[in-house]
Amino acid sequence: MSSSRTIIVVDEFHPSPKGRYKDDAPGCEITSGEVFRNSILIKALNSYDKVIVDLTGYNRYGRSFLDEAFGGLISRAGFTKAILDEKLVIKHDTVPSFVVTANERILAADLKKQKN
Amino acid sequence: MITFEWVFVSWVITLFIHYHGVKRTSITTQKDSLIEQLSNICDPSWLDEHAVELYLEEIYNSKILRVSWKIKQLNQLSTSPLVDEQKLDAFYNFDIETYVSKKTPDDDKSKLKFELQDLCNNFIDDIENTFFNKVTTSKKFMLLTIRNPLVAIFLSTGIVYLYFEIFTFLYN
After folding, report:
1. Reported pTM
2. Range of the domain at A27
3. Cα dihedral B155, B156, B157, B159 sign
4. What is the Cα Rg of chain A in Å?
5. Could you report the per-residue pLDDT of B27-77, keeping only the tens digit for each?
6. DSSP A89
7. Which terminus, N or C, of chain A has the lesser number of Cβ atoms within 10 Å?
8. For chain B, which residues make up each domain, given as ranges?
């Protein structure tokens, strides 16, 4: 039986996620994409067959946050695009552009990995 | 002799003209405000060299969000969508992090500056073009924007007419 988990970012992580690394600026140790990926996302992807990341509730996601949180899964955490295509769903109910950007960052990370 | 019906019809026509004028002015104001917000994004004056990079990225994200709300408001106001929200994807995907980074070489910064300026200018051009074709010159747009009040007024006119007919019949 397949299991799934929905991560509501603004409830389970931080109401205003921002920054790439935890040492980008004061406060980033609890808001950055790196912290989100390491503390929530990787664990969920390793434990469940399907992970839905719901970004709804915050409308100022930066490219750096999305790149580190999602692209970082490929560039730093060893996931492949095939695995993410199968297991990861990203959504935002009001601003679909964040979903487009996050998926584009995953693709960019995958292309970069293939080149190296 | 000018009957009540003719006075009513001319009042309805005047109301339509006034409504269309007000609506068009609101759409134009909203469009100008959107263009101003877009111009602010490519204006480098908000780039404070001494600020923390994340702070500048946050300013950029806020500016994009304001543009996004303006587009939503403009599309809502104009009844039929004037600006495609998906065109903002390129702004969300713009590498603002590298652009505001102090470590980025000047050549790369210049390239990104031109890229951002290009994005803004193309988007502004697209908005102006759509506005001219759909709002300024199109007659169809006038009917589209006033379709709801048009139906409401015709129905109310019908009800008022029936009301008069029924009372005339009853008194006769």
Report:
1. 0.81
2. 4-115
3. positive
4. 13
5. 999 999 999 999 999 888 888 878 888 899 999 999 999 999 999 999 988
6. E
7. N
8. 4-171
What was the ipTM of the complex prediction?
A: 0.83
The DSSP bridge pattern shows strands A88-91 and A50-54 to be: parallel
Given a contact cutoff of 8 angstroms between Cβ atoms, the answer to whether A20 and A64 are in contact is: yes
Tokens of B101: 């980074």
Question: pLDDT tens for residues A42-63?
Answer: 999 999 999 999 999 999 999 9
The encoded tokens of residue A48 equal 């469940």
pLDDT band at residue B161 using 50, 70 and 90 as cut-offs? confident
Domain count, chain A: 1
User: Looking at the partner chain, which of A18, A101, A104 has a beta carbon nearest the beta carbon of B58?
Assistant: A18
**Could you give the 3-state DSSP secondary structure of residue B63?**
helix
- Scanning A52-91 for CB atoms below 8 A from B yields 59-64, 67
The whole-angstrom separation of Cα B159 and Cα B171 is 18
